[in-house]
Amino acid sequence: MIYKEPVFKPAGDVYVIVEYGDELNLLLNFRVIALNEAIKKAGLGGVTETIPTHRSLGIVYNPFKISYKDLVSKIKRLDKQLGKVGELPSRILTIPIWYNDPWSQECAKAHGAPDNMEFIAEKNKITVEKVIEVHSGTLHWVGAVGFTPGCYQAVPLKPSFVLSAPKYPRPRKWTPERIICLAGQLTSAYPVNSPGGYQLIGRTPLDLYDPMQRDPVFADSPVLTKVSDRHKYVPITGDEYKEIRKQVEEGRYKYQVEEGIFRLDSI
Question: Are 267 and 141 in contact (CB under 8 A)?
Answer without folding.
Answer: no
